[in-house]
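Quick one before lunch.
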Amino acid sequence: MYPVLSNEQLAPDVHRLWIEAPHVIRKRRPGQFAILRISADGERIPLTIADVDHARGALAVIVQGVGKTTRQLNRMAPGTAVLDVAGPLGRPTDIHPGSRTCCIGGGIGAAVVYPIATGVKAQGGYVVTILGARSRDLVILEDDLSRVSDHLVVTTDDGSYGRHGLVTDALKALLDEGAVFDEVVAVGPLPMMRAVCEVTRPIGLRTVVSLNPVMVDGTGMCGGCRVQIGGEQKFVCVDGPEFDGHQVDFDELASRLRAYREQEQEAAARYDEECASADMWAV
Amino acid sequence: MAKKITQKTKTPMPCRDAEERSHSFEEVSLGYTLEDARREAERCIECKNQPCIAGCPVEIDIPAFVKAVADGDLTRAFVVLSEKNLLPAICGRVCPQEEQCEKVCTIGRKFEPVAIGRLERFVADWAAAQGLEAEGVRVAPTDKKVAIIGSGPAGLTAAADLARRGHQVTVFEALHEPGGVLIYGIPEFRLPKSIVAREVHALERLGVEIKTNHVIGRTFTIDELFTELGYEAVFVATGAGLPYFPNIPGVNLVGVYSANEYLTRSNLMKAYRFPESDTPMIRAANVAVIGGGNTAMDAVRSAKRLGAEHAYLIYRRSRDEMPARKEEVEHAEEEGIEFLLLASPTEILGNERGRVTTIRCQRMALGEPDASGRRSPKPIPGDTFDLAVEVVVFAVGQGANPLISSTTPDLHVNKWGNIIADPETGATEKKGVFAGGDIVSGGATVISAMGAGRRAARAIDSYLAQGMTDGA
Ligand SMILES: Cc1cc2nc3c(=O)[nH]c(=O)nc-3n(C[C@H](O)[C@H](O)[C@H](O)COP(=O)(O)OP(=O)(O)OC[C@H]3O[C@@H](n4cnc5c(N)ncnc54)[C@H](O)[C@@H]3O)c2cc1C
Ligand code: FES
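Model of the flavin-adenine dinucleotide complex:
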């Protein structure tokens, strides 16, 4: 069992949980993820290790409650525990010391970008971060990211906070102003990552994206996480999760991500109902 | 002086009704009664040359245990069995006996061989019900620490043997449950998971520590096991877990699975109980499984149990060449699996949502025997057919998982990625590191993995005893 040490809400439906798992953080490096399972009938879900605390032997995960398991996680109180945490999984981010990097995090993607930005900064890099969300209340990790960034731009789709517009607008503006980057790291919803890649492709700016396909084992055993990178088959859990964005087949990934949409909705709806009736009895 | 044969055919195995079981994950074979077992054991003619012993990869004294069953002395039968085989309840269920002990059985030359596998299972189940455990040597504890990577049959066997020799053994397992293929691959209806759990508990009682959720290569590298955690020897038994997909259009459509994924979802994650369990899988009316081995049989029979109206098995050779256990092929047929032999997929077609709708196949004819001695299939030009399916499962073999080899530069692998190890001792070129099971041999059998675990345990024991002077 892996105890939940704290659970803090960062935005509606988005929580940061600190979970004790000393063996997983010992060798963990930025870019890696863990696989969690809450209980005996639970599914295995991959979550980026957003932060580590060696003193407490704990890792932070930032969770958006989109399905049953993530909603369950977000309701877990300190003192409860999850059944399994395995990791660290995936290859660490390939950080080039001193690199000028533009880190772009859209929505929950900020949770993946934060450890990468931290790693780049720690290696003497120059970090410009673009943090995007639909609206003000969905902006997460602004303080954390501003600490590890030389420059931080916040954008919201509706203009309720920061710059009005999409992350790609901010990126274009930076490039127009003459900003020079060795590479871009973009993590967020697929359409966002794809749009960033379309901005950087014509100018040949190396762009790394972090992919989040459906996974089961996370060790390369099942092939469920396979994607096409430059026409070659790769397993995201062992070969990734980060890949050259200009080589990714986003259409295929999008349809594979929808594989279990109906079952996921069914499970989430059942869970919400159970919670609602449990809450009703609690009062 | 050899006895006379009492019965020409094997005593039948009581089984669940085929129609009933094709909807259920309960074990298919029910096992012999004592009466069945004694009747079957009586069939052994006690021939002088005892070819069955050499036919067994771990050289169980089969005539002795069969004789004990015939005499009704089941304790003695179990003692003989467990001298050589740590996991008889499992092997009795999953060994390809028709290729091993039963293949060379003397009466099998004229009649059906003695049902050695069924007798093995009977004795093991009886012993478990009595709470008997394998004795084995037990010596005073040493202070030597050994790490085993992987908890499949190779790892479990090596762990038990090393613990009995007094060493402190830790098994590191990447998944959340120990057992390897026995847990994630082979379905409940063929090997109940309670049997695997029983063996794992027996190990824990021997003092073996099992650490799940530890992915070696990531959580720790092999070098770190030595330098930071103080292990003095490491046995790599990580299996053959890297599924192959054929290089044909459509393999990444939604609804295309590797058998590993399909079976892991169903067995390990219990997706057949969704939504009570949280892991989903696509439940389709029409499922095609590609392959002819045990893995393919397990997948296609699972598909039927998951509700498929049509569960097809597509295999490029003919029935005789199927590598699966004969009993499984027969059971599959009884359960209504539709065999499409001498056919091979060339393309998978999907709809606008990227989901599988059709599998296109090429019909084949058998040509000359190839290097493996099996007749190799050749396409019949222009002869193709389409089959409407929503799920396609590939069970066309596996390669070696590179997690360990890629993080252990001085551990050498062959061109298929399998670790190079001495077949007698499991010793690799890296000092203190031994390897065995599917990671060395490529996909093989439970019993061969066990045999490798046992040989490696012996070698590791002497390596540790010699003060680690050689073994490199
Ligand atoms: C579906 C299926 C059906 C089969 N049916 C039969 C049958 O009927 N009869 C038969 O004899 N054989 C059968 N086989 C083959 C048989 O199961 C294998 O040959 C045997 O299990 C190999 O044993 P092993 O110990 O080498 O590896 P495995 O059983 O594969 O176990 C390896 C273990 O190591 C773990 N691991 C891998 N990498 C790491 C890592 N980096 N760190 C930590 N742990 C790791 C894995 O999670 C796994 O638990 C079948 C195989 C499959 C897939
Ligand atoms: S999640 Fe199974 S291979 Fe990647």
